[in-house]
């Protein structure tokens, strides 16, 4: 455990005092601000906009961008340690599979939680500037994002533990994330394509294939969990909200245990 | 990893090549007309009866629970219509009743056997204006005859009106020519009055199986007179009810009368500009499973992947009194909500006012009023919204009000604002509450001030690291120098 704590502190310090994290958080908040600005422009011109929570959608984007970054940085950091031989060196010391995985994972997760606090402060500032209230549902959404983020990071750690190189780990992880996000968006996009021919709808098969893939994703994707959990919480369905938290914890544990097993089988050498 | 990817790709290709049934696929171009067994369904959608048919390719029928729905076993001609990617029925060429009894099973147990009967669906106050009424058996023909009689009387009245109008025109022309018309009143008094619009609506008398079922997933099949199951009659029947009922509002900003917004979910917040005037028209609404409701109205629609929930607007709240009173001293309209049993709304026949609440303190109580919209005189575009009485007093043409709503003024000073409907009995109508959030006017650059915090934090953290590193290096070099 002591080894895991030392690794945790080391990784956290490297991330917190490096410039990349801060550039990324700034970009994430910038994305959120642009979305909020669009909403406010609409309200200004239209006079009215009914919606569950003005900050909900921007926050979800901010947290998705952040979650992907943190998980990706975990993938790269671990894969690079293996490729450079640093991992092998660590394992000559008191580090074992469990302490290594837990140390790496907990560092990224702590970082993620700290960023959520940072975003909360930023959204409170935005609330003060715009006069928009932050409803209780916003804080519930933040709570949920902690668990879905924990799940996403565990996926990143798992991918890096079983990958052979930085390149393959990066490609696999980015492909997973991109396909997850793209499939969720493309199904809705394809549904809006009207049949252009008098004889058949050329994208129908694709729509249906993507539909089935999306069913699978809805059970696996942390992004789906976040969206579903928030939607159900706004409907007052707290059972579904708690179920999403429970499933996120379960999947998170599954991937952490799989990472330990994966590291054992994959080995620490390049 | 490569093996895993290869296995996934192979299984994916296998799934496609084995012709997994993904419904109607793009290449389907079957335009052949053929006789098929279908279920014609008159499904109640919360407001009116929606007529649809279920071809053999559709394996599930969706119906609302605890409402009369009619299922009609038919033989007809169907053909595939590629343009809309669905089967169409040609009921004009063939519409044959299939005799037999409909068997309904729940968990494999036969729970109900229903014989077809005559039915008629009527809307005494007009389609979309009032409740639908279904008459079964002998009552169906009797009510249909009543409707036919009423229609006949209306047609005769219209015919008389046109005849009277012609006579009046002729008489008027003659009197004008002979100089007998001396004032406008001479013309208006004798003008025939057009009969009120005939809203009473009815279907013909059809034959079908009426069903009122509690929620559940059933299996249905039609057993013919020989005791055999009719081919293609076995289907799944999903009977569902609304998950929630509530009160939605059509919100009309005063300066955007033509582009109203609607708020459905009781938890929604109305974000508004400061110092704006809103008109809120309440309506009943029910929330349904998106998939179920979509397939109730369109059985051949593709299956949704992630079925969510959807609010369906139902009838508007109505002011008491069925007609608009045009005379000058009309009493104030009392707002009467018509509630129905449900999770949130369960009272009956209560009048409501809108309560505007600020920080849990009642600010004002607003009554339901009628409004008229007047085009701004002159060439400039625009309009103004007036209370109906005020409009009439300002010389607007006598007519029904353009809309009826609660008028809410949102002032800049208001904070933590809430609105809800409160009944005469003091109870707040559940599902009618909304939060109104007054958004401050802020320049778009103000928002970006929030970026200063993460940027500042980043500079401090990175700067501290560089500073400590520098100090550390300096110490190291000093130590090296001392050692050397």
Largest interface: A-B, 70 and 66 residues
Largest sheet of chain A: none
Overall 3D shape of chain A: globular
Kindly name the structural category of chain B.
alpha+beta
Report, as a whole number of angstroms, the end-to-end distance of chain A. Answer: 25 Å
What's the pLDDT, averaged over the residues of chain A?
86
The ordered string of helix (H) and strand (E) elements of chain A is HHEHHHHHHHH
Structure, described:
The complex is a heterodimer of chains A (270) and B (484). Chain A has 270 residues and is an all-alpha fold. Chain A contains ten helices and one strand. Chain A is globular. Chain B folds into three domains: 34-138 and 201-240, no CATH class; 244-438, no CATH class; 450-483. In chain B, strands 1, 2, 4, 5, 8, 9, 10 and 11 form an eight-stranded antiparallel sheet that branches. Chain B contains seven helices and 27 strands. Chain B is an alpha+beta fold and 484 residues long. The chains are: A mainly alpha (270), B alpha+beta (484).
Question: How would you concisely characterize the structure shown here?
Answer:
The complex is a heterodimer of chains A (270) and B (484). Chain A is mainly α and 270 residues long.
Question: What descriptors fit this protein?
Answer:
A: 270 residues; mainly alpha; globular; B: 484 residues; alpha+beta; 3 domains; 8-stranded antiparallel sheet; 7-stranded antiparallel sheet
List the helices and strands and how they pair.
The complex is a heterodimer of chains A (270) and B (484).
Chain A: H1 2-16, H2 19-46, E1 48-51, H3 56-84, H4 86-92, H5 97-130, H6 136-162, H7 166-191, H8 204-220, H9 222-234, H10 238-266
Helix pairs in contact in A: 1-5, 2-3, 2-5, 3-5, 3-6, 3-7, 5-6, 5-10, 6-7, 6-9, 6-10, 7-8, 9-10
Chain B: H1 2-17, E1 34-44, E2 49-54, E3 60-64, E4 69-81, E5 86-97, E6 101-106, E7 109-114, E8 117-123, E9 133-136, H2 138-178, H3 184-188, E10 201-202, E11 206-211, E12 216-223, E13 235-240, E14 244-253, E15 261-263, E16 269-272, E17 276-289, H4 290-297, E18 309-316, E19 318-319, E20 335-337, E21 350-358, E22 361-366, E23 368-375, E24 383-387, H5 388-393, E25 403-410, E26 417-423, E27 434-438, H6 444-447, H7 452-483
Parallel strand pairs in B: 3-13, 16-27
Antiparallel strand pairs in B: 1-2, 1-4, 4-5, 4-11, 6-7, 6-12, 8-9, 8-10, 8-11, 12-13, 14-15, 14-17, 17-18, 17-25, 19-20, 20-21, 21-22, 21-26, 23-24, 23-25, 26-27
